């Protein structure tokens, strides 16, 4: 009778350990941001490299903080100019969308698979603006709209869209973000 009690005790101990462990979260089987990019006919470029003494992104726990990126095209040129002066809202929107693609390329390089993105948490959109320009949210919508197209509800985020007197290299927009990832 001693051995069955020992087996029962061992079984219950293992069962208790299993239930006390945190379960590792994973995305649903049908969650596939990269398939969404393909459906949108978007090919991610090589990530833009930092232009100074910083890195594209830093991971702290399950958060990734991405450095600001701008609307750099595949040919190396950027959308430059001031909104409300020589860049239209529509052009700025497309520039913000291009910036989103550049940030997704950084995420892809850091994570290897965009399915590891649990949520887009926070976006800071900076718009190179004429002093009288007040439509910064309409410009940064180009970024936000693509995040929702690619990640669904996981792409909805807190956001600031602000005007700046100038941005590096006269780029029209610069956007940084915080992303929560699966372990």
In short:
Pfam families: YjgF_endoribonc (PF14588). By secondary structure, the protein is of the alpha+beta class.
3D architecture notes:
By secondary structure, the protein is an alpha+beta fold. The chain contains four helices and five strands. The protein has a five-stranded mixed sheet, covered by helices on one side. A hairpin with a 2-residue loop joins strand 1 (57-60) and strand 2 (63-69). Residues 34-169 form the Endoribonuclease L-PSP/chorismate mutase-like domain. This is Enamine deaminase RidA, house cleaning of reactive enamine intermediates, YjgF/YER057c/UK114 family. It holds the Pfam family YjgF_endoribonc. It comes from Neolewinella agarilytica.
């Amino acid at each position: 009778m001693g051995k069955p009690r020992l087996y029962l005790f061992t079984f219950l101990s293992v069962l208790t350990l299993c239930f006390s462990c945190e379960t590792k979260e994973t995305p649903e089987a049908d969650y596939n941001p990269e398939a969404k990019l393909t459906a949108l006919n978007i090919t991610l470029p090589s990530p833009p490299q930092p232009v100074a003494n910083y890195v594209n992104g830093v991971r702290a726990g399950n958060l990734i903080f991405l450095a600001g990126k701008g609307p750099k095209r595949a040919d190396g040129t950027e959308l430059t100019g001031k909104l409300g002066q020589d860049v239209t809202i529509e052009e700025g929107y497309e520039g913000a969308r291009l910036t989103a693609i550049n940030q997704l390329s950084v995420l892809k390089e850091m994570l290897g698979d965009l399915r590891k993105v649990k949520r887009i948490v926070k976006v800071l959109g900076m718009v190179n603006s004429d002093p009288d320009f007040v439509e910064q949210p309409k410009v940064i919508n180009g970024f936000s709209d693509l995040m929702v197209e690619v990640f669904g509800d996981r792409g909805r985020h807190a956001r600031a869209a602000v005007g700046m007197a100038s941005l590096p290299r006269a780029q029209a927009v610069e956007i940084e973000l915080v992303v929560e990832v699966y372990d």
